[in-house]
Amino acid sequence: MSPVDPVPYRIAGIAGSLRRASFNKSLLAHAAAVAPPSLAIDVLPDALRLPLFDQDLEDAGDPDEVVALRAALAEADGLLLVTPEYNFGVPGPVKNMVDWMSRPPGRAPLRDKPVLLMGASTGRLGGTVQAQGQLRISLAVVGAHVMASPPVLVAEAGTRFDGDVLVDEPTQKIVALALARFADFVATHRPR
Amino acid sequence: MSPVDPVPYRIAGIAGSLRRASFNKSLLAHAAAVAPPSLAIDVLPDALRLPLFDQDLEDAGDPDEVVALRAALAEADGLLLVTPEYNFGVPGPVKNMVDWMSRPPGRAPLRDKPVLLMGASTGRLGGTVQAQGQLRISLAVVGAHVMASPPVLVAEAGTRFDGDVLVDEPTQKIVALALARFADFVATHRPR
Amino acid sequence: MSPVDPVPYRIAGIAGSLRRASFNKSLLAHAAAVAPPSLAIDVLPDALRLPLFDQDLEDAGDPDEVVALRAALAEADGLLLVTPEYNFGVPGPVKNMVDWMSRPPGRAPLRDKPVLLMGASTGRLGGTVQAQGQLRISLAVVGAHVMASPPVLVAEAGTRFDGDVLVDEPTQKIVALALARFADFVATHRPR
Amino acid sequence: MSPVDPVPYRIAGIAGSLRRASFNKSLLAHAAAVAPPSLAIDVLPDALRLPLFDQDLEDAGDPDEVVALRAALAEADGLLLVTPEYNFGVPGPVKNMVDWMSRPPGRAPLRDKPVLLMGASTGRLGGTVQAQGQLRISLAVVGAHVMASPPVLVAEAGTRFDGDVLVDEPTQKIVALALARFADFVATHRPR
Q1: How far, in whole angstroms, is CA B161 from its chain's centroid?
Q2: Selecting from 3.40.640.10, 3.40.50.360, 3.60.10.10, 3.10.25.10, what CATH number does the domain A9-187 have?
Q3: Which of A146, A174, A185 to mutate to test the interface with D (most CBs of D within 10 A)?
Q4: ipTM for the complex?
Q5: For testing the chain C interface, which of B110, B111, B116, B141 should be mutated: the one with the most C CBs within 10 Å?
Q6: How many CB atoms lie within 10 A of CB A99?
Q7: Residue C70 has pLDDT above 90, yes or no
């Protein structure tokens, strides 16, 4: 942010879990709180609450929730998606949201959007590495720009949060580093 | 099927698309119609119509639709899953079903279940190869047994069906071969 | 092994690392030492030392190392592949070996072969989960039968070995469980 | 290219196949011939001819071929990697090259490098979609910037080339579009 460009980029923040007490929601809240001044992260709490994708539904006119989320993403300069991993893959509700937001072809709100992925899991293994890998592939074909690194992969989340507060310092540092790089990335990649 | 084992294996048939006019539904219907006598494929038309996975929902007691699908799968000797691919990945509603059916840990209805994957897409590329690859990984960690080959990957589905009838002979042959092998596979792998 | 079937299954053991001091070699050696009596694991120390795959080479007549490895695999009842992960994927030398052993079409030595995957990495993340996922997909299309579970994913290998001896008890247990299941799996799946 | 910046970006071009008559070599040659003036694509014919990755080799001092390729990549403003797919994955020799070029940590020549992926396969399915997906994940963790779209996936290559000349017009168009976008992408992403 230079003195002549004081407006922060608006980043849509989506957590990939529906449960109330979610490490991924807490990780997103932490990121929103510590983001650099050039990034204003707006959490979209109902982003996953969409109908199951069904082309008949779409043909009948997009559901209201879909229209609302498309509008919110269209206005955003970027997306921060913080997601768990289920069964070595993207959670169904997260992929469902991505599938709706990949439509309509040519005018998808995810197209040309800068994206930062993060994720937390309670298990010892991977910290959502496979969910993020699958999302990287799906988001690329939609035309979104997924930042390459550093990966933010929080394994054993139960040991890194105190209640809903991220207290693990190494994790705090990697989150801060990723956000700082994302600020540059959005400046370079946001749709014009 | 030997003379002393005349009861066919019951195979749950699930199509991975919710729209009415779906090539994957047609492909499943074709498979059910031409299956060898040792396989009785029961199509479960509402298998995808589950709530979005939410652990709070699960903790409050499983939704009725989830209970019903678990019971149907628990009774089946195997699963035939015929799915499209969205954005180079598993459709959200399909992964959502797999995620529910991967629960509860230790008693998941997919555990030890023989699975045959098929898929159709209208595009030229891949015929759902990436969706099937991701499902192979997710189903393995759940403990299901996914048959290795032959892959049934139907690209350019618009040219292979006449209305909802599969008319492409090479596709008919690979489907028949996969079903014949699956009959042996179920005999070997079904839970005992 | 029943009293009337006293010959153990011969399992080819391949480590996916070329370096001398390799946790994956040590993990393979441990597995070979503790395998149940029905499995005789023969380590093939030079299995990765093949030329880079090149169809011109193949057309000119298979290199001696390739011929030798094909013969060793053809005689084996199964394969235990213990591999590291490089850059969130299969190590190049491991994929190179799989690519050679997937040939020639129709007579590939990996075809119909029961396979058990294991892996160790020094990092905190994943314990080779992505390498194993990619191998599961590649081996399936070759027609091999990869056992579904339990996954043997050894992260932070530096803390689980004392020199080249696996000393971590939870890891020893999961290895033993996987081997016990693999004995049944080979009995069911080996080519006849 | 503005009037004040007349020097074209130097792009290292690597084909992922070792055989002489390779559709991927022909596709790379076509791309080099039709690239916009702002991109000068230098084909590195021996890029894959590296020893199998072995950390003992690395510890003993990098092999000459590795040193040479690292230097060539370090001088380049970007990388065009045109690769086949073997067994639903990255060819072994290609991954081996990526693994060498991901080293040493912190100074890898692929780090921060803009990358364009293309691929051709003779089969009907996918046109290397899975190899490219795996490379996208591996290259991201190395810190390279892989352009998101359009995907250049050439299936049924046998019908799109006349000898070693790309004659299929739709494929020519997608290659031209990808190169035009890559020129902008390199301008934005090349290391400074």
Answers
A1: 20
A2: 3.40.50.360
A3: A146
A4: 0.95
A5: B141
A6: 21
A7: yes
